[in-house]
Design a protein that fits this description.
The protein has about 600 residues and is α/β, with parallel strands linked by helices. The protein is built from 24 helices and 22 strands. The chain is about 35% helix and about 15% strand. The strands form five sheets. Strands 3-2-4-5-7-6 form a six-stranded parallel sheet, with helices on both faces. A six-stranded parallel sheet has the order 11-10-9-12-13-14, sandwiched between helices. Helix 3 crosses helix 19 and helix 9 packs across helix 15.
């Protein structure tokens, strides 16, 4: 006989190879806490907020390429995880949340709001943002629900799952040989119709004059990066990436042509928009990629979209000519087998793409000499970091600058919270990455506004001596919000900086309070010095990068005002600062969009 809590943790370790769990202890999960502590094969990482636990587990799963586990207590312990769970849901990350619950005999029923201490019906709360969420009310079902949850988390489009376990179920004794089992469904063969459709894709790729391969996070989730790089060598066409897929292909690859989107690279947007055949694999084409003028997205191209999620293929924005609901790895392998030899290069098309890439650099030419420029910093940082380095980023300028200016080397990971775009992601992400990497240095890019939402995780980093190098973009609060308010509300600031109610602390004093070495840079001329100082520190360290509080993000897609005062969203290729119309037209191989379209 064995306690349910011990069985569950042992099965996670032995059956699924789990080595680490992120947790915060609590009375409603005391048997689970005890079982984790007793299991010598599992290390537990104690964060200082349950949101941070969930976010750390999210990034751990991304780096490891496996399921990650977050264990919390009932009530507020469970609900505190919600932002982290939402992030995993939107970015398709397989995370298992295990929460404690009050004893079955004191669970509220009917219209009663609460009976047990710190009780909350967390399953009803999280069901819309999980793939599987269940209260285990029978000890004999623990194996069934655990195995089923993990299978569902990792299959199809991955995502978070949740097991809520009452205190008396946690402590119940069971016979492992008599527990209810669950069997995964068997794999199915590729249907003939899909194989025929892929053959048509191969034919169109051979005949297209201006083809583009657009890849996203689904390629990483399908463990298909090797297949992507192999296929890129055979297709010999421009490969562009999405926000979450920015690290899929090294920047120096001969067919890597940058990143698409409203905060993408100008040359890349021109390339995609002028294509005549667009193959998208593992990118859901969210609004950051296709913009609010999605009717003009790749408008001259025959579009083939490959995605594991049928709902993404049928949404109301971009309508592909061919929609293939298929795992990215299976698609890339099948297509690769149909194109066994390298295709002929499209010389004029590649010459056009290379000319644009040289014409529009990703680091602004004009910079304020009194501050560190975000893009100049990221550009130099990418020179210092070796192959295989892991960089985690907060939302806002930290990720925007990296998306535009970081030059990816082979095996590097650049991780951000794209769909949820939650402030406060940076430090918990660093905890998750450091745990997964087992002592290798982690680079964390954080905004001074974002870092405040999970500042307590500096103590987690310090406690474990995780070698996290935190580069803090200090620009007086919420620069992205200030930009929005300047653009649309005539610089009427509300809750975005010191003049409108948001201040940040002296971060040198904060670093000292947490016992972290601290460095600073005030101009681009100090970038190399501060990066060197940070990388020379053995453990964690913080660098304050003093940036222009009014630095614009250049280039960026912004709405423009027509003569009659109405605002319209431009097509993807028409980024701000707007190019002279003669220069703009010289870059277009297809007719421009009319304002009325």
């Amino acid at each position: 006989m064995i306690r349910v809590a011990d069985f569950l943790i042992r099965r996670l370790s032995r059956e699924y190879g789990l080595k680490d769990i992120f947790l915060i202890t609590g009375g409603g999960a005391m048997h689970l806490n005890d079982a984790i502590g007793r299991n010598e094969d599992i290390r537990y990482i104690c964060c200082h907020h349950e949101q941070a636990c969930a976010m750390a587990a999210d990034v751990y799963a991304r780096v490891k390429g496996s399921i990650a586990v977050c264990q919390v207590t009932t009530g507020p312990g469970a609900t505190n995880t919600l932002t982290g769970v939402l992030g995993a849901w939107l970015d398709s990350i397989p995370v298992l949340i295990i929460s404690g619950q009050v004893r079955r005999e004191v669970m509220a029923t009917g219209a009663l709001r609460q009976l047990g201490d710190q009780e909350a019906d967390v399953i009803s709360i999280v069901r819309p943002i999980t793939k599987y969420a269940v209260l285990i009310d029978d000890p004999q079902d623990v194996q069934y629900h655990l195995d089923r949850a993990i299978y569902i988390a990792r299959s199809g489009r991955p995502g978070p799952v949740w097991l809520d376990i009452p205190l008396d179920v946690q402590g119940a004794m069971v016979d492992p040989e008599r527990l209810r089992a669950w069997e995964a469904p068997s794999a199915t063969a590729l249907p003939d119709a899909q194989r025929t459709a892929i053959a048509d894709v191969a034919m169109r790729l051979r005949s297209a004059e201006r083809p583009v391969l657009f890849v996203g996070h689904g390629v990483r989730l399908a463990a298909a990066t090797a297949e992507l790089l192999e296929l890129a060598e055979r297709l010999r066409i421009p490969v562009v990436t999405s926000l979450l897929g920015l690290d899929l292909i090294p920047s120096d690859h001969p067919y890597a042509f940058g990143r698409v989107g409203s905060i993408g690279q100008r040359s890349t947007n021109f390339i995609l928009q002028n294509s005549d055949f667009l193959l998208t694999v593992g990118t859901r084409l969210n609004l950051r990629m296709v913009t609010f003028r999605w009717q003009a997205f790749a408008r001259a191209a025959y579009k083939v979209m490959v995605d594991i999620d049928a709902a993404e293929l049928a949404k109301q924005t971009v309508a592909p000519d061919v929609a293939l609901q298929l795992d990215a790895k299976i698609f890339l392998q099948t297509l690769g087998a149909m194109i066994p030899e390298p295709l002929d290069e499209r010389g004029p098309w590649l010459s056009y793409c290379r000319r644009l890439r040289a014409k529009y650099p990703n680091v602004p030419q004009q910079q304020n000499p009194d501050y560190v420029n975000s893009h100049a910093f990221v550009d130099r940082l990418s020179d210092f970091l070796a192959e295989g380095a892991v960089v985690v980023m907060g939302d806002g300028l930290a990720s925007e600058a990296a998306y535009q200016a970081f030059r990816v080397k082979r095996g590097q990971r650049l991780i951000l919270n794209s769909g949820c775009a939650a402030m406060g992601f940076d430090l918990p992400a660093a905890v998750g990455a450091a745990t997964a990497m087992g002592g290798a240095p982690i680079v964390c890019l954080a905004g001074d506004g974002s870092i405040m939402l999970n500042l307590q995780e500096l103590q987690t980093i310090k406690h474990h001596s995780f070698p996290v190098k935190i580069f803090l973009f200090e620009n007086n609060g919420y620069l992205s919000i200030r930009r929005t308010q300047e653009t649309y509300f005539a610089s009427k600031y509300v809750g975005s900086g010191p003049s409108s109610g948001v201040t940040v602390p002296n971060f040198a004093a904060v670093a000292a309070a947490f016992g972290l070495p601290c460095f600073s840079a005030h101009s681009n001329g100090e970038i190399d010095r501060v990066i060197t100082q940070m990388l020379d520190v053995e453990g964690p360290a913080l660098a304050i990068l003093h940036m222009d509080p009014s630095q614009p993000l250049i280039p960026k897609l912004v709405s423009r005002r027509l003569p009659d005062g109405t605002m319209v969203s431009p097509p993807l290729e028409d980024m701000w600062p707007f190019l002279d119309r003669e220069e703009f037209m010289a870059n277009m191989l297809i007719p421009p969009v009319k304002e009325s379209q």
